[in-house]
Specification:
By secondary structure, this protein is of the alpha/beta class. It has one domain. The chain is built from 2 helices and 16 strands. The radius of gyration is 17 Å and the shape is globular.
C-alpha cells in the first residue's frame, strides 16, 4: 500500500473512532422532552453510561427556563426526535425567563471523549443575554440541529476555553450573534 493511501486509511479510521460515535450502545429514552424528564433520565443512568450510549429525547415543543441546563460530562449521544419534531424554546413570560446562563446543554466532556448532540431545534426567542443554546467546554459534535432567534449577545453556541469538535449539517437562522469563542 502506498504511503499516502496508508495515511488516508489511518485518518479515516481515527475519524470513525473518535469523531463519529456509533449509536450501537444502550439507548435510554426520556419519557417527554420536558427538561425535568430529560435531566432525570440522564442522572438515573449516570453511573452506567458508557461511551457511545444514547439519550433519546422524544418529539415535543417545550420550554426550558433560565435554570434548565442539562450538564453532560459523559461521552454519549444526545439524540432528539428531529428538527421538525423537537423544539426547545427559551421561556418568554413569567419568572425564570430567558436563556439558561450555561446554555440549554452544557457539554463538558474531556478529550479524547466526545459528546454528540443531534436532531434538535433550539429557539432563543430573541434573547440578548445568556450563553445560548449550547455551551461547549471540551470536545463535542453538533450535527443536524437548528439554532434560531438568538439576539445579539444571546449566542447560538458558546465555545469556552480549550475546545474542539465538529459542527456539521446545522442551520443558523434569524440570529444576530452566532458562535462566540472565549478564553482561547
Amino acid at each position: 500500500m502506498a504511503k499516502s493511501n496508508y495515511s488516508r486509511l489511518l485518518v479515516a479510521a481515527w475519524l470513525s473512532l473518535t469523531c463519529f460515535q456509533s449509536l450501537s450502545g444502550a439507548v435510554h429514552t426520556a419519557p417527554t422532552a420536558n427538561f425535568y424528564d430529560v435531566n432525570n433520565t440522564y442522572y438515573t443512568y449516570y453511573n452506567s453510561w458508557v461511551d457511545g450510549d444514547t439519550l433519546l429525547i422524544p418529539a415535543g415543543n417545550v420550554i426550558w427556563d433560565s435554570t434548565s441546563t442539562l450538564i453532560v460530562d459523559k461521552a454519549i449521544n444526545i439524540s432528539g426526535a428531529g428538527t421538525n419534531s423537537l423544539t426547545i424554546n427559551a421561556k418568554t413570560t413569567g419568572t425564570l425567563t430567558g436563556l439558561p446562563q450555561n446554555g440549554f446543554i452544557l457539554m463538558a466532556v474531556a478529550a479524547p471523549q466526545l459528546c454528540t448532540v443531534s436532531g434538535i431545534t433550539f429557539d432563543g426567542k430573541g434573547y440578548t443575554s445568556g450563553n445560548g443554546a449550547m455551551v461547549l467546554v471540551g470536545l463535542g459534535r453538533l450535527t443536524s440541529c437548528v439554532f434560531k432567534n438568538f439576539g445579539s449577545g444571546g449566542f447560538a453556541l458558546h465555545a469556552y476555553n480549550f475546545v474542539g469538535g465538529v459542527i456539521d449539517h446545522c442551520v443558523f437562522k434569524n440570529y444576530n450573534a452566532g458562535i462566540n469563542f472565549s478564553n482561547w
